[in-house]
Write a structure and sequence with these properties.
Rossmann fold; 8-stranded mixed sheet; 11 helices; 267 residues; alpha/beta; 8 strands
Protein backbone atom coordinates (compact mmCIF):
# COMPACT_ATOMS: atom_id res chain seq x y z
CA UNK A 1 0.00 0.00 0.00
CA UNK A 2 1.76 3.19 -1.14
CA UNK A 3 2.03 5.88 1.48
CA UNK A 4 4.13 9.00 1.76
CA UNK A 5 4.83 11.19 4.76
CA UNK A 6 3.52 14.68 4.10
CA UNK A 7 2.75 17.62 6.37
CA UNK A 8 3.29 15.50 9.49
CA UNK A 9 1.07 12.56 8.46
CA UNK A 10 1.21 9.45 6.28
CA UNK A 11 -1.05 9.80 3.23
CA UNK A 12 -2.31 6.77 1.32
CA UNK A 13 -2.47 7.26 -2.43
CA UNK A 14 -2.91 5.35 -5.68
CA UNK A 15 -1.63 6.23 -9.16
CA UNK A 16 -3.05 4.74 -12.33
CA UNK A 17 -2.61 5.51 -15.99
CA UNK A 18 -0.13 7.63 -17.89
CA UNK A 19 -0.13 11.08 -19.36
CA UNK A 20 -0.76 14.46 -17.76
CA UNK A 21 -1.36 14.29 -13.97
CA UNK A 22 -4.95 14.54 -12.71
CA UNK A 23 -5.57 14.79 -8.96
CA UNK A 24 -8.88 13.71 -7.39
CA UNK A 25 -9.90 15.13 -3.99
CA UNK A 26 -12.74 13.30 -2.24
CA UNK A 27 -15.62 14.68 -0.22
CA UNK A 28 -16.57 14.52 3.44
CA UNK A 29 -16.19 11.08 4.97
CA UNK A 30 -15.17 9.34 1.73
CA UNK A 31 -11.97 7.62 0.72
CA UNK A 32 -10.71 7.53 -2.85
CA UNK A 33 -13.38 4.82 -3.35
CA UNK A 34 -15.70 7.71 -4.20
CA UNK A 35 -14.02 7.90 -7.62
CA UNK A 36 -13.89 4.18 -8.41
CA UNK A 37 -16.48 4.36 -11.18
CA UNK A 38 -14.75 7.27 -12.89
CA UNK A 39 -11.10 6.29 -12.57
CA UNK A 40 -11.20 3.50 -15.22
CA UNK A 41 -12.39 6.04 -17.80
CA UNK A 42 -10.08 8.84 -16.67
CA UNK A 43 -6.95 6.68 -16.80
CA UNK A 44 -7.43 6.35 -20.56
CA UNK A 45 -6.48 10.03 -20.79
CA UNK A 46 -4.49 10.97 -17.68
CA UNK A 47 -2.14 9.84 -14.96
CA UNK A 48 -4.74 9.75 -12.17
CA UNK A 49 -3.63 10.43 -8.60
CA UNK A 50 -6.26 9.61 -5.97
CA UNK A 51 -5.74 9.57 -2.22
CA UNK A 52 -7.44 9.36 1.15
CA UNK A 53 -7.74 12.75 2.81
CA UNK A 54 -6.50 13.37 6.32
CA UNK A 55 -8.95 11.71 8.72
CA UNK A 56 -10.26 8.94 6.45
CA UNK A 57 -9.37 5.49 5.16
CA UNK A 58 -5.73 4.47 5.20
CA UNK A 59 -4.40 7.99 5.76
CA UNK A 60 -3.57 9.12 9.29
CA UNK A 61 -6.35 10.55 11.46
CA UNK A 62 -4.85 13.10 13.86
CA UNK A 63 -7.12 15.09 16.12
CA UNK A 64 -8.99 17.97 14.50
CA UNK A 65 -10.50 20.30 13.72
CA UNK A 66 -9.19 20.45 10.15
CA UNK A 67 -9.32 23.34 7.70
CA UNK A 68 -9.39 23.66 3.93
CA UNK A 69 -5.94 25.25 4.09
CA UNK A 70 -4.58 22.29 6.06
CA UNK A 71 -5.86 19.72 3.57
CA UNK A 72 -4.66 21.89 0.70
CA UNK A 73 -1.17 21.74 2.20
CA UNK A 74 -1.55 17.97 2.45
CA UNK A 75 -2.40 17.86 -1.25
CA UNK A 76 0.41 20.20 -2.26
CA UNK A 77 2.84 18.15 -0.19
CA UNK A 78 1.68 14.94 -1.83
CA UNK A 79 2.33 16.42 -5.27
CA UNK A 80 5.79 17.52 -4.20
CA UNK A 81 6.58 14.09 -2.77
CA UNK A 82 5.47 12.50 -6.04
CA UNK A 83 7.56 15.05 -7.99
CA UNK A 84 4.48 16.39 -9.77
CA UNK A 85 5.09 20.05 -10.49
CA UNK A 86 1.71 20.83 -12.03
CA UNK A 87 -1.58 18.97 -12.49
CA UNK A 88 -5.25 19.22 -13.26
CA UNK A 89 -7.24 19.11 -10.00
CA UNK A 90 -10.79 17.90 -9.33
CA UNK A 91 -12.47 18.39 -5.96
CA UNK A 92 -15.93 17.13 -4.97
CA UNK A 93 -18.04 18.72 -2.20
CA UNK A 94 -15.67 19.10 0.78
CA UNK A 95 -12.92 18.27 -1.69
CA UNK A 96 -14.08 21.32 -3.61
CA UNK A 97 -13.26 23.46 -0.57
CA UNK A 98 -9.79 21.90 -0.53
CA UNK A 99 -9.39 22.47 -4.27
CA UNK A 100 -10.36 26.14 -3.90
CA UNK A 101 -7.80 26.58 -1.11
CA UNK A 102 -5.15 24.82 -3.22
CA UNK A 103 -5.89 27.09 -6.19
CA UNK A 104 -5.60 30.17 -3.99
CA UNK A 105 -2.54 29.11 -1.98
CA UNK A 106 -0.63 27.20 -4.68
CA UNK A 107 -1.75 28.52 -8.07
CA UNK A 108 1.51 27.35 -9.61
CA UNK A 109 0.50 23.72 -9.03
CA UNK A 110 -2.81 23.82 -10.90
CA UNK A 111 -3.26 23.75 -14.66
CA UNK A 112 -7.04 23.36 -14.90
CA UNK A 113 -9.52 23.14 -12.04
CA UNK A 114 -12.82 21.25 -11.74
CA UNK A 115 -15.09 22.17 -8.80
CA UNK A 116 -17.82 19.61 -8.25
CA UNK A 117 -20.94 19.99 -6.10
CA UNK A 118 -19.38 22.62 -3.84
CA UNK A 119 -19.78 26.26 -2.83
CA UNK A 120 -17.71 29.22 -1.63
CA UNK A 121 -19.09 29.28 1.92
CA UNK A 122 -20.18 32.42 3.72
CA UNK A 123 -23.69 33.83 4.09
CA UNK A 124 -24.31 34.22 0.34
CA UNK A 125 -24.08 30.59 -0.77
CA UNK A 126 -27.24 28.52 -1.31
CA UNK A 127 -27.44 26.10 1.65
CA UNK A 128 -28.54 22.48 1.79
CA UNK A 129 -32.26 22.11 1.09
CA UNK A 130 -34.58 21.72 4.12
CA UNK A 131 -35.57 18.28 2.82
CA UNK A 132 -31.98 17.07 2.74
CA UNK A 133 -31.11 18.70 6.06
CA UNK A 134 -34.04 16.96 7.76
CA UNK A 135 -32.89 13.57 6.50
CA UNK A 136 -29.16 14.06 7.05
CA UNK A 137 -29.67 15.31 10.61
CA UNK A 138 -32.03 12.46 11.55
CA UNK A 139 -30.02 9.96 13.58
CA UNK A 140 -32.93 7.66 14.41
CA UNK A 141 -32.97 4.04 13.31
CA UNK A 142 -30.08 1.68 12.63
CA UNK A 143 -27.05 2.69 10.50
CA UNK A 144 -28.30 0.87 7.40
CA UNK A 145 -31.66 2.60 7.60
CA UNK A 146 -29.94 5.98 7.99
CA UNK A 147 -27.69 5.22 5.03
CA UNK A 148 -30.66 4.40 2.79
CA UNK A 149 -32.45 7.59 3.82
CA UNK A 150 -29.33 9.58 3.02
CA UNK A 151 -29.03 8.03 -0.44
CA UNK A 152 -32.55 9.13 -1.29
CA UNK A 153 -31.73 12.82 -0.80
CA UNK A 154 -28.14 12.57 -2.05
CA UNK A 155 -28.99 11.08 -5.44
CA UNK A 156 -31.40 11.90 -8.24
CA UNK A 157 -35.06 10.91 -7.77
CA UNK A 158 -35.55 7.22 -8.49
CA UNK A 159 -31.84 6.41 -8.66
CA UNK A 160 -31.86 3.95 -5.76
CA UNK A 161 -34.85 2.07 -7.15
CA UNK A 162 -33.37 1.95 -10.65
CA UNK A 163 -29.89 0.83 -9.57
CA UNK A 164 -30.18 -1.55 -6.59
CA UNK A 165 -26.84 -3.14 -7.49
CA UNK A 166 -25.04 0.20 -6.99
CA UNK A 167 -26.82 0.77 -3.70
CA UNK A 168 -25.77 -2.70 -2.54
CA UNK A 169 -22.15 -2.01 -3.49
CA UNK A 170 -22.31 1.38 -1.76
CA UNK A 171 -23.77 -0.19 1.38
CA UNK A 172 -21.01 -2.83 1.41
CA UNK A 173 -18.41 -0.06 1.16
CA UNK A 174 -19.93 1.88 4.03
CA UNK A 175 -20.28 -1.27 6.15
CA UNK A 176 -16.58 -2.05 5.65
CA UNK A 177 -15.63 1.62 6.12
CA UNK A 178 -17.86 2.88 8.94
CA UNK A 179 -17.77 6.55 9.80
CA UNK A 180 -15.48 7.24 12.76
CA UNK A 181 -17.12 10.09 14.70
CA UNK A 182 -14.05 12.09 15.72
CA UNK A 183 -12.24 12.16 12.33
CA UNK A 184 -15.58 12.79 10.61
CA UNK A 185 -16.24 15.77 12.86
CA UNK A 186 -12.69 16.99 12.21
CA UNK A 187 -13.42 16.95 8.46
CA UNK A 188 -16.86 18.50 8.98
CA UNK A 189 -15.15 21.45 10.64
CA UNK A 190 -13.77 22.40 7.21
CA UNK A 191 -17.17 23.42 5.91
CA UNK A 192 -18.30 24.91 9.20
CA UNK A 193 -15.22 27.11 9.39
CA UNK A 194 -16.13 28.71 6.03
CA UNK A 195 -19.61 29.87 7.05
CA UNK A 196 -18.60 33.36 8.14
CA UNK A 197 -18.15 36.01 5.46
CA UNK A 198 -14.47 36.78 6.29
CA UNK A 199 -13.55 33.09 6.22
CA UNK A 200 -15.40 32.21 3.02
CA UNK A 201 -13.79 31.98 -0.41
CA UNK A 202 -16.29 34.38 -1.98
CA UNK A 203 -14.12 37.50 -1.93
CA UNK A 204 -10.96 35.63 -2.89
CA UNK A 205 -11.99 33.65 -5.97
CA UNK A 206 -11.34 36.49 -8.40
CA UNK A 207 -7.63 35.74 -8.07
CA UNK A 208 -7.99 32.20 -9.44
CA UNK A 209 -6.39 32.14 -12.88
CA UNK A 210 -6.77 28.46 -13.70
CA UNK A 211 -9.48 27.69 -16.26
CA UNK A 212 -12.27 26.25 -14.14
CA UNK A 213 -15.17 23.89 -14.82
CA UNK A 214 -17.99 24.03 -12.28
CA UNK A 215 -19.84 20.72 -12.39
CA UNK A 216 -23.13 19.92 -10.62
CA UNK A 217 -25.90 17.39 -10.74
CA UNK A 218 -29.25 18.97 -11.59
CA UNK A 219 -30.96 17.32 -8.61
CA UNK A 220 -28.34 18.09 -5.95
CA UNK A 221 -30.15 18.77 -2.67
CA UNK A 222 -27.00 18.71 -0.53
CA UNK A 223 -25.25 21.52 -2.42
CA UNK A 224 -27.97 23.00 -4.64
CA UNK A 225 -26.87 23.66 -8.23
CA UNK A 226 -27.68 27.37 -7.94
CA UNK A 227 -24.25 27.55 -6.29
CA UNK A 228 -22.67 26.85 -9.67
CA UNK A 229 -23.55 30.25 -11.11
CA UNK A 230 -22.53 31.97 -7.87
CA UNK A 231 -19.08 30.40 -8.20
CA UNK A 232 -18.88 31.26 -11.89
CA UNK A 233 -19.63 34.92 -11.13
CA UNK A 234 -16.55 35.04 -8.89
CA UNK A 235 -14.04 32.90 -10.83
CA UNK A 236 -12.86 34.78 -13.95
CA UNK A 237 -12.14 32.02 -16.45
CA UNK A 238 -14.89 29.56 -15.56
CA UNK A 239 -17.81 27.72 -17.10
CA UNK A 240 -20.78 25.85 -15.65
CA UNK A 241 -22.05 22.44 -16.69
CA UNK A 242 -25.09 20.83 -15.09
CA UNK A 243 -25.35 17.06 -15.39
CA UNK A 244 -28.88 15.77 -16.03
CA UNK A 245 -30.40 12.91 -14.03
CA UNK A 246 -27.84 13.30 -11.26
CA UNK A 247 -27.71 14.44 -7.67
CA UNK A 248 -24.89 15.21 -5.26
CA UNK A 249 -23.05 11.94 -5.83
CA UNK A 250 -22.82 12.17 -9.61
CA UNK A 251 -19.39 10.40 -9.64
CA UNK A 252 -21.36 7.28 -8.65
CA UNK A 253 -24.64 8.07 -10.41
CA UNK A 254 -23.54 9.18 -13.89
CA UNK A 255 -19.80 8.44 -14.10
CA UNK A 256 -19.69 8.20 -17.90
CA UNK A 257 -21.46 11.54 -18.37
CA UNK A 258 -19.14 13.14 -15.81
CA UNK A 259 -16.04 11.69 -17.49
CA UNK A 260 -17.17 13.06 -20.85
CA UNK A 261 -17.70 16.54 -19.40
CA UNK A 262 -14.33 16.51 -17.65
CA UNK A 263 -12.26 15.16 -20.55
CA UNK A 264 -13.83 17.63 -22.98
CA UNK A 265 -12.91 20.46 -20.63
CA UNK A 266 -9.40 19.30 -19.73
CA UNK A 267 -8.52 18.29 -23.27
Amino acid sequence: MPKVQVNGIDIYYEIRGTGYPLVLISGLGYTLWQWHKMIPGLVKHYRVIAFDNRGIGRTDKPAGPYSSDLLAEDTAGLLEALEVERAHVIGHSMGGFVAQALALNHPEKIDKLVLCATNFGGPNHIPVTPEAMAVLSDVSGDPIERFRRGIVVSCAPGFAEAHPEIITEWLEYRTKNPIEPQPYQAQMAIGLSLLSAPASFEGKLSSIQAPTLILFGEHDKVVPPQNANLLAEKIPNSKVQILPNAGHFFPLEVPVTAIDAITQFLG
